[in-house]
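dumping this here before i forget
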Amino acid sequence: MDKVITTTLLILAGVVSMIFVFNSAYPMINRSSQAMVSMADKIDDRMKSRINIVYAANSADRQTIYIWVKNVGTSRILDIGQTDVFFGLEDSFSRIPYVDDAGGGYPRWAYNMENGTEWKTSVTVKITITYSADPGTGTYFVKIVIPNGIADEYYFSM
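structure:
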């Protein structure tokens, strides 16, 4: 009879231990799998996103610079206003604020869709950088970084 009681208590202790292990390990496994799915989605988005700076030019008064950027990826680019635009002479460029973030100051940039209403595959965006005065002559560098980190850069002379 002692063996039956001991065996029953050991089985009961084993079941309680397994429930404890399951209750502590399952939430960690679940969180880990959610993190993996989230990371896979971000990697997928980055792999499908690509941009190409097609051309850059300045206006006759040299206070406005136009940059044409094409979406050559397979996904739609959202929230264009969160894009980072870096511009300036090749050895002294800086981040140019979006027109909504510039507070009326210069330089600043804005955009127009050239051949669509959304920045999806094969649509070109015209970025306009405006200065209060002529920024000068030389070789200029422009780098466009979309919100998910994909970037392209371009050099041109003014």
